[in-house]
Design brief:
Helix 1 links the parallel strand 1 and strand 2 (about 50). Helix 1 (about 25-40) packs parallel to helix 3. This protein has one domain (about 15-105): 3-Layer(aba) Sandwich (Glutaredoxin). It is α+β, with helices and mostly antiparallel strands and about 100 residues long. The chain has three helices and four strands; from the N terminus they run E-H-E-H-E-E-H.
C-alpha cells in the first residue's frame, strides 16, 4: 500500500494498533514501536493505543466490522476530520510510525 497519502501529524490523529502475541509480524511491529518510543528523536511524540484482539475479543470484532478483515497487525488511524484509515501491512505500519514520530520530534 502506498502510505504517502497518509498524513503523519500527531495533532490530527489518534493511533490504535491491533495485534496478538503469537503473530511474528505483530512482534516486529511492536518492537519497532518500542524502539521509536525509546529513541531520542521521538520522545513522547508517538502515542499508540495497543489493542490485543485475543485478550479483548471486542477489538477483534471491531477490527472485522470497521476495518473489513481480521488481519493483524493493523494500525487504525483516526483523523481529526472524522475519517478512519486502516493500515494492514507491518512494513507500511512501521514506515508510517517512523514518519509520525519524526513529524512531531
Amino acid at each position: 500500500m502506498n502510505t504517502s497519502n497518509l498524513t503523519a501529524s500527531n495533532q490530527d490523529q489518534s493511533l490504535s494498533l491491533y495485534y496478538y502475541d503469537g503473530c511474528p509480524f505483530c512482534q516486529m511491529t511492536l518492537k519497532a514501536l518500542e524502539q521509536l518510543k525509546q529513541s531520542a528523536e521521538s520522545g513522547d511524540a508517538l502515542n499508540v493505543e495497543l489493542r490485543h484482539i485475543r485478550r479483548q475479543p471486542q477489538y477483534r470484532t471491531e477490527l472485522i466490522k470497521q476495518g473489513g478483515k481480521p488481519q493483524v497487525p493493523c494500525l487504525r488511524i483516526d483523523n481529526a476530520n472524522g475519517k478512519t484509515q486502516w493500515l494492514y501491512e507491518s512494513r507500511d505500519i512501521i514506515s508510517f510510525m517512523r514518519r509520525h514520530a519524526l513529524a512531531d520530534a
